[in-house]
Design brief:
- It is a single chain.
- By secondary structure, this protein is an alpha/beta fold.
- It has a single domain (2-236), classed as Rossmann fold, CATH 3.40.50.1360.
- The protein is 31% helix and 19% strand.
- Strands 1-10-9-6-2-3-5 form a seven-stranded parallel sheet, sandwiched between helices. Strands 4-8-7 form a three-stranded antiparallel sheet.
Length: 246
């Protein structure tokens, strides 16, 4: 695990996006295609923005998988992660080879099976992820299931996770934040050949300390990233402020 600390979220995103773009290019060069995972949320704004500015990526050879989505949220809802990805990425890149979004309006178990079948045939080269205020990885809230081999699963969202979504302005009140989501599993994320983890903001500082300096435990789900052979963590000064070597 390699940690890079930037002055602010913009610099963080630029660094993460550049490194991620290089990994995508190398995958295409080596095997003729790249399979990637994209996360959403405010932590990914600058990383995705940088990825879009990168030159010489043949997007027609890139297949994208989606990390997580609320159950029961239509694609027109301001908090929809499908809407987020369409507006912030898919509609702005040249023709992709394919992208597979999670349909939270479909039957959840059938949707998990559909996506699981697809991703098992597409080994992931680069996963772009973040860390939640409660230490979650994707929507795997604590105590996360570290053992399931299912690529996608239905998860319950805890109070801290739902408060984060409300606090970031995606919903008008806590009461209307969904209580369930479809999420990529911990084991599926960890299968990725490389992981780019972008974590800005002071509100993530305690989770960053717990996950990067504490023991690996499902009570701090993103702590599992410590065991990945090629994981690069990108923090800004605020998110890294509680680290012992900051």
């Amino acid at each position: 695990m390699n940690i890079s600390i930037s002055q602010d979220p913009t610099e963080l995103g630029q660094r993460a996006g550049k490194i991620g773009a290089d990994l995508i290019r190398k995958a295409i060069q080596n095997q003729g295609f790249a399979n990637i995972i994209l996360a959403t949320g405010t932590s990914q704004f600058e990383t995705l923005k940088q990825l879009l500015t990168e030159k010489d990526i043949d997007w027609s050879k890139v297949t994208v998988f989606h990390l997580d989505e609320y159950i029961g949220i239509p694609i027109t809802h301001p908090a929809s992660f499908r809407k987020y990805l369409l507006e912030r990425f898919f509609n702005q890149v040249p023709q992709l080879k394919a992208y597979h979004m999670i349909d939270g309006e479909n039957d959840p178990e059938k949707e998990c099976m559909r996506l699981s079948t697809l991703i098992q045939n597409h080994p992931i080269d680069v996963a772009f992820v973040g860390i939640g205020e409660n230490g979650h990885l994707a929507f795997n809230d604590p105590p996360a299931d570290f053992d399931t081999l299912k690529p996608y699963l239905v998860v319950d969202l805890d109070h801290a996770c739902r408060m984060q979504q409300f606090g970031e302005g995606w919903f008008p009140s806590l009461d209307v934040v969904p209580t369930q989501a479809i999420s990529m599993s911990i084991q599926q994320i960890m299968k990725s050949k490389a992981i780019i983890c972008s974590v800005p903001d002071l509100r993530k500082a305690q989770a960053v300390k717990d996950c990067l300096e504490g023991e690996i435990t499902n009570l701090h789900p993103a702590s599992i990233l410590q065991s990945h052979p090629n994981c690069q963590i990108f923090l800004d000064n605020s998110a890294s402020s509680l680290l012992s070597n900051h």
